[in-house]
Design brief:
Layout lengths: L5 E4 L4 E6 L7 E2 L3 E2 L8 E4 L6 E6 L15 E8 L7 E9 L6 E6 L7 E8 L2 E2 L3 E4 L11 E6 L10 H6 L6 E4 L25 H12 L2 H9 L1 E4 L21 H18 L17 E5 L3 E5 L21 E2 L15 H13 L4 E5 L9 E2 L4 E4 L7 H13 L5 E5 L5 E6 L12 E5 L10 H6 L7 E5 L3 E8 L3 E9 L9 E10 L2 E7 L6
InterPro entries: Metallo-depent_PP-like, PhoD-like_MPP, PhoD-like_sf, PhoD_N, Phospholipid_Metab_Enz
Protein name: Alkaline phosphatase D
Length: 521
């Protein structure tokens, strides 16, 4: 009961002054917490030349399974030009509402391009850690260089997020996360770490899973150090799902409810713009980012709109390695869905940026598994949607676009490949370059599986599934340099790091050239 407008909130152990309004929910004007409300850290993302998204989520007891009370909580924010937060240039107050899990997505705008900023949140008497972020260059400028890293596939149970310990020490402008930010599935014994709670299927259990991952100190440090641009793959919902089709052939009506919960939890926990807020069961996630005239990134969503994987084995959903399967070549079978595919093609044709970068989730180059006489293709990747890939690569060749680079993840292996319109013909011209990053912690397939296939995939220049880490890229107008960075182990929370291999792509000359690996590029 309300008594003199004082409202005791036992769930979440928060109490304070509740301001009653005609609208719902009521606002908790003077919150007090029994535990630190910024336990999931801070983050920034989706940078533009004049704005960036600032994120946090109030969660004083995120792993308890107890929800925060159904009240809105005012959260103050500041952005400054110095790390001590003394030169504040903007500040404001926003509401953390129960509808969105008490997450906050502040769009700080009217900022200067190519500028480092620092930011912080406050609620009641509690202040968050200080985060650092950076805006993109102005669209009409020609920056000398861009330095970024891309990561993917961080399975909590398979190991520690050790790579982030070293990523925060890199000299970067931003980080791309290319999917599998969390993994579904229940806890498994005998692994370095264990999931908390059951396999997520609803909003409550997905929130719990994200809270576990966001509670990781190394992941928090990476988010606090750089702005992130994030896209998803399958494990944010369910392994190998396609549109409204689950791996286990669940009733689509039931699975759509699960997918909706997963999509909302994804939005609640990442620094996405409000335009990505789930609406009518969908999320607008494919988008572009332009780094002046130096590079434009086309970020794709290859799960929400794709057709179901072809050549399914009866009773088994998702991807499979198949040999004779004409359905994977069908012209109407789409990885991206027709609207997104048209959006990508139009963007490639119209862009004036020096480097065209397709940021997506998987290996785009063809990969035949096995031997010459007995080989197969993995249908959950681009090989299962060959016509979609062909249409995109045909545009690259016909435009022509000389500096196209595809970056991806998913396969838990480093990959470097030449892109062609005809992978079956060794004499087919190289029209683009692909770099695939290994996982942060997820286990890779046996190296022998890829080694057997090396002779029948001459366009794939490098493939290593034995190591965990990230890809560090430095771009100028004349050269793209990529360093494949690996940690010694993910079995412990700390590890050394080194460069496994390095490659360069020269201006106007598609195809990666190996260079001598360096200990500390």
């Amino acid at each position: 009961m309300l008594n003199r407008r004082q409202f005791l909130l036992t769930v979440g152990a928060v109490m304070g002054l509740v301001v009653l309004r005609d609208q719902s929910p009521p606002i908790l004007a003077q919150p007090q917490f029994s535990a630190y409300p910024f336990s999931l850290g801070v983050a920034s993302g989706d940078p533009r030349p004049d704005s960036v998204v600032l994120w946090t989520r109030l969660a004083p007891n995120p792993l308890s399974g107890q929800p925060m009370p159904a009240v809105a909580i005012p959260v103050q924010w500041q952005i400054a030009t110095d790390a001590q937060m003394t030169e504040v240039i903007q500040q404001g107050t926003t509401q953390a509402t129960p509808q969105w899990g008490h997450s906050v997505h502040v769009v700080a705008d009217n900022l200067s391009p190519s500028q480092w900023y620092w930011y912080q949140f406050q609620v009641g008497s509690e202040t968050s850690p200080i985060g650092r972020t950076r805006t993109l260059p102005a669209l009409d400028t020609d920056p000398e260089q861009l330095k970024f890293a891309f990561v993917s596939c961080q399975h909590y149970e398979k190991g520690y997020f050790t790579a982030y310990q070293h990523l925060v020490q890199e000299d970067l402008d931003l980080v791309f996360h290319l999917g599998d930010y969390i993994y579904e599935g229940g806890p498994h014994k005998g692994r370095p770490r264990q999931h908390i709670g059951p396999n997520p299927i609803d909003l409550e259990t997905y929130r719990l899973r994200y809270a576990l991952y966001k509670n990781d100190p190394q992941l928090q440090a990476a988010h606090a150090a750089f702005p992130f641009i994030c896209i998803w793959d399958d494990h944010e919902v369910d392994e190998d799902y396609a549109q409204d089709q689950s791996q286990n052939y669940d009733d689509p009506n039931v699975f759509r409810k699960r997918r909706w919960a997963a999509y909302q939890a994804y939005y609640e926990h990442l620094p996405l713009r409000p335009t990505a807020q789930p609406q009518n069961g969908q999320v607008q996630l494919f988008r572009r980012f332009q780094f002046g005239q130096l590079a434009e990134f086309h970020c794709l969503d290859n799960r929400q709109y794709r057709d179901d994987q072809p050549c399914a084995t009866e009773g088994i959903g998702g991807g499979a390695i198949v040999s004779a399967c004409q359905d994977r070549l069908a012209a109407d079978h789409s990885m991206l869905g027709k609207p997104q595919e048209a959006w990508l093609i139009q963007g490639l044709q119209n862009s004036s940026a020096h480097w065209q970068v397709i940021a997506q989730q998987q290996l785009m180059a063809e990969l035949k598994f096995g031997l010459e006489t007995v080989s197969g293709y993995w249908t959950d990747g681009w090989d299962g949607y060959a016509a979609s890939r062909q249409r995109i690569l045909d545009v690259v060749e016909q435009r022509p676009l000389k500096n196209v680079v595809v970056i991806g993840g998913d396969i838990h292996a480093f990959g470097v490949a030449d892109l062609k319109t005809n992978f079956q013909d060794p004499q087919s011209p190289i029209i683009g370059t692909e770099f695939v990053g290994t996982s942060i912690s997820s286990t890779g397939l046996p190296q022998a599986l890829y080694s057997l296939s090396q002779k029948i995939n001459p366009h794939i220049k490098f493939l290593d599934t034995r190591h965990r880490g990230y890809v560090l890229c430095q771009i100028t107008r004349e050269v793209w340099t990529a360093h494949l960075r690996i940690v010694n182990s993910v079995e412990q929370s700390e590890s050394t790091i080194r460069t496994l291999a390095s490659f360069q792509v020269k201006n106007g000359q598609p195809g990666a050239i190996p260079i001598e690996a360096m200990a500390n590029p």
